[in-house]
């Protein structure tokens, strides 16, 4: 009940003209990056970070959240019309959606995807409203050892499912932690790894690394892939009664399953859509028809990936553990705005948190309106060749990175880390764990020091406190399960793409 | 033959291993422990060691289980051209300000890398440069040095 009162307060903040505009901008940009090739929600948020530096955190986070869940809608358009998933989360949609498009039912596929996404997004937001506050309240009793274990869990979970190899994921996370040690040690005042350069004493900025890896790295990796393809015509977006009847239960099932999977740290919307598709195929009376354009195969996964996007916000807001690569960047943005992610967010910045949650309800309505009548208009964007897009993206990266500290050295770091991001993408090293490592590095180090000081230098403190040891066991499970699955030849589906 | 196919991947993993090694060496000159808690050198040594071991693990996995056949990857030439143009642009920012290098960078990418029509490339580059500088300089009030005399 208290959550609903807080949510009402959130709505009061979210419906201010500025926040409504930012919400619209967020979902519109999310829809746009979902449609446009070579740029995903992570890159879009990374590119916009410099523009929001010094801006109102509530409005900025409303926009970032809008980009995140808006991209789930946009990615569907390319999946259905081109069979090229705009996001890894819409891979399953492309199987049935493209077959429907080939039968002249592209509009119906997009329509049911929009309706399912709206329902699931609303269910997910409701789940977030009800689940996040008690989780955060329970986590308020966390001390430094629990925070330390929480960071270990967050890093391990994201590293384990971010790429094709667990080893590479963890190594990327460690590399991020390593980068976080550059500069002056805040506890002792000792300068570390500055290599004689005064400008490195401030350390590596989150914005610089994020824009480099997700902006420049993404462009360098995808500049050769830009291809032009014929786009199917979109008409009759509203499904008929029979199609609605067939889609109703897959949407409901996908919403609940997607939300539950999204809540688990680092599982993300990609796995959720896989599970929903497989579930629909198993339940179906005609599983042999899957792959030929079954509307259930569009409705279920689409609902699932949108519910998972809302679910991934639960651990991010309540515990400070990102549920996906994109929420890892939003987590970094929270720190950039001077907020401490974790359970205290609900008590110390409740206005912001509830405004973001409320904006998700509003954003879903905006997306439904945008997608039903305007699906055809967004489909036209597929005709914009990527070669006209990426040079301005690189320019935005340079000016944006320079603007956050007026530093030309940051532009050099941008070029260097951009090349690194390209190589990481090329050789399938996930970038999100590296960002998370950089963001959580200082919290990790300070909580380790505080914990050991409390325990007079004994590491037993991490294994004798029940919550801490539970979190560490979960971290071990996250790493060992994919390895075991790999050994026994049952790799989880996350390897298809970096979790969004 | 198989080793040839994965040499880039091996070199990249070796790069991460080398970074780990640098961290171990540099951190060994820092204090490790103070009172009950770790000092400035403790975690960097741990991170460096872990990165070294994990990268060695990646190298070992690649050598033990090399991919069957040729690994399909995107051609490098276009990305290298873009990276070269980016480095030249960043290098010139400190001397001539932002306006000219950003315009020339976009123009080079459109006209030279992508072989797009020259006039259209010049117009799009000029408009995009103008928009970015307008947004950052005037709307966001960020003192972006537009010309060499702006520093």
Structural write-up:
The complex is a heterodimer of chains A (500) and B (151). Chain A has 500 residues and is mainly α. Chain A has one domain (2-144, 205-434). In chain A, 71% of the residues lie in helices and 1% in strands. Chain A contains 21 helices and two strands. The two termini of chain A are 32 Å apart. Mean pLDDT of chain A is 85; it is low at 492-500. Chain B has 151 residues and is mainly α. Chain B is 70% helix and 3% strand. Chain B contains six helices and two strands. Chain B has a two-stranded antiparallel sheet. In chain B, a hairpin with a 2-residue loop joins strand 1 (33-34) and strand 2. The model of chain B has no long low-confidence stretch (mean pLDDT 90).
Defining traits:
heterodimer; A: 500 residues; mainly alpha; 2 strands; B: 151 residues; 2 domains; two-stranded antiparallel ribbon
């Amino acid at each position: 009940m208290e959550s609903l009162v807080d949510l009402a307060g959130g709505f009061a903040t979210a419906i201010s003209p500025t926040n409504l505009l930012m919400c619209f901008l967020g979902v519109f940009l999310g829809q746009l990056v979902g449609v446009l090739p070579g740029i995903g929600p992570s890159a879009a948020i990374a590119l916009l970070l410099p523009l929001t530096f010094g801006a109102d955190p509530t409005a900025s986070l409303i926009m970032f959240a809008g980009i995140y869940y808006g991209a789930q809608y946009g990615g569907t358009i390319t999946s259905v019309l081109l069979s090229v998933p705009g996001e890894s989360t819409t891979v399953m949609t492309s199987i049935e959606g493209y077959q429907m498009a080939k039968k002249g039912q592209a509009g119906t596929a997009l329509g049911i995807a929009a309706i399912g996404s709206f329902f699931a997004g609303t269910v997910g937001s409701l789940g977030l409203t009800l689940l996040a506050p008690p989780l955060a309240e329970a986590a308020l009793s966390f001390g430094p050892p629990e925070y330390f274990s929480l960071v270990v869990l967050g890093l391990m979970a994201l590293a384990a499912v971010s790429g094709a190899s667990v080893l590479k994921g963890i190594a990327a996370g460690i590399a991020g932690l390593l980068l976080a040690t550059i500069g002056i040690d805040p506890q002792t005042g000792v300068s570390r790894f500055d290599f004689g350069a005064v400008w490195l004493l401030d350390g590596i900025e989150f914005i610089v690394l994020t824009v480099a890896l997700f902006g420049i790295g993404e462009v360098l990796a995808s500049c050769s892939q830009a291809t032009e393809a014929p786009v199917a015509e979109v008409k009759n977006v509203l499904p008929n009664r029979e199609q609605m009847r067939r889609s109703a239960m897959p949407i409901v099932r996908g919403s609940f399953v997607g939300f539950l999977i999204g809540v688990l740290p680092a599982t993300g919307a990609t796995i959720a859509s896989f599970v929903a598709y497989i579930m629909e195929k198993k339940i179906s009376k005609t599983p042999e028809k899957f792959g030929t354009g079954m509307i259930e195969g569009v409705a279920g996964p689409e609902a699932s990936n949108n519910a998972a996007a809302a679910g991934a916000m639960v651990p991010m807001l309540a515990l400070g553990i990102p549920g996906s690569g994109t929420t890892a960047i939003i987590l970094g943005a929270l720190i950039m705005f001077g907020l401490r992610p974790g359970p205290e967010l609900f008590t110390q910045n409740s206005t912001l948190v509830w405004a973001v949650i409320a904006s998700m309800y509003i954003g879903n309505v905006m997306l439904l309106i945008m997608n039903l009548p305007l699906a055809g208009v967004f489909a036209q964007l597929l005709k914009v060749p990527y070669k006209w897009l990426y040079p301005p993206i690189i320019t935005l990266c340079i000016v944006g990175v320079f603007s956050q500290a007026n530093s030309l050295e940051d532009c050099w770091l941008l070029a260097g880390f951009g090349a690194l991001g390209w190589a990481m993408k090329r050789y399938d090293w996930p970038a999100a764990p590296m960002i998370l490592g950089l963001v959580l590095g200082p919290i990790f180090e300070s909580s380790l020091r505080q914990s050991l000081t409390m325990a007079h230098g004994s590491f037993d403190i991490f294994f004798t406190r029940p919550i801490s040891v539970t979190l560490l066991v979960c971290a071990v499970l996250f790493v060992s399960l994919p390895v075991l699955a790999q050994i026994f030849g049952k790799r989880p589906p996350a390897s298809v793409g970096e979790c969004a | 033959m198989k080793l040839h196919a994965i040499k880039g991947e091996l070199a990249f993993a070796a790069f991460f291993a080398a970074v780990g090694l640098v961290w171990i060496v540099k951190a060994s000159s820092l204090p490790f422990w103070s009172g009950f808690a770790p000092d400035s050198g403790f975690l960097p040594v741990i991170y460096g060691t872990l990165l070294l071991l994990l990268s060695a693990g990646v190298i070992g996995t690649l050598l033990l289980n090399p991919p069957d056949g040729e690994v399909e990857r995107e051609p490098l030439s276009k990305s290298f051209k873009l990276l070269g143009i980016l480095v030249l642009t960043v290098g010139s920012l400190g001397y001539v300000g932002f306006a000219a290098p950003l315009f020339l960078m976009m123009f080079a990418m459109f006209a030279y890398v992508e072989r797009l029509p020259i006039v259209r490339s010049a117009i799009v580059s000029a408009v995009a440069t103008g928009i970015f500088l307008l947004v950052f300089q005037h709307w966001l009030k960020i003192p972006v040095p537009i010309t060499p005399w702006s520093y």
